[in-house]
Amino acid sequence: MALSDSQVQKMKQKRETILEQATLMFAEHGYNDTTIAKVAKASGVSFGSVFTYFENKDQLFFAAVVEPLQAYAPRLLDFDPNARQPTQELWNMVAEHIKIFSSFGTYLRLVVQVIGYHNRFAEAFAELDAFHNTFRAKIGELVKNGQERGELQIQDAKYAATAYTSFLIGLRVNLIDSPDSQMWEQFVPFAMQLFGAKTD
Hints:
The chain is mainly α. The chain is 70% helix and 0% strand. The protein has 9 helices and no strands. The longest helix has 27 residues, at 122-148. The protein is elongated, with a radius of gyration of 20 Å. The protein starts with a helix and ends in a 6-residue tail after the last helix. The relative contact order is 0.11.
């Protein structure tokens, strides 16, 4: 018998709750100290219920890393590398990226774990690395556009893009301010310097 819309919605919500709690626990306590039993308790579901949605802890961890990335990727890549006004496009891009990353506190702690133990979490790291390469490449195209139009200083666009992504991660990992804080927008000019934005 097919599930009703209500049942499907309840299952979807339960899965989201489990994944949300797992993400918090993996980020705060690490992979080893996070168990399915602890996730189930925090989620308010039975131990067996977790396995309805995730085959094992490895799959749950992978989902906690990859699914948020897939959800945010369209927003992170939503800029035009061929913009006619590349410096303005960069400014708008940076402002939006900082806004997005300001809400990534818990998730980025999880990402840092994967990067730090990339051999152990090879599958999740491969997903992160593939996105990072796509992200940097598109940013690099916009930087080159700005250089060709004489709006940005000439430098290696790939290194500039890498420095920028490291800047974004570093901001959120090192600062505890709320995403609502107006402090975040103050970092936009500093990010622009990484791209060789001219100040005169």
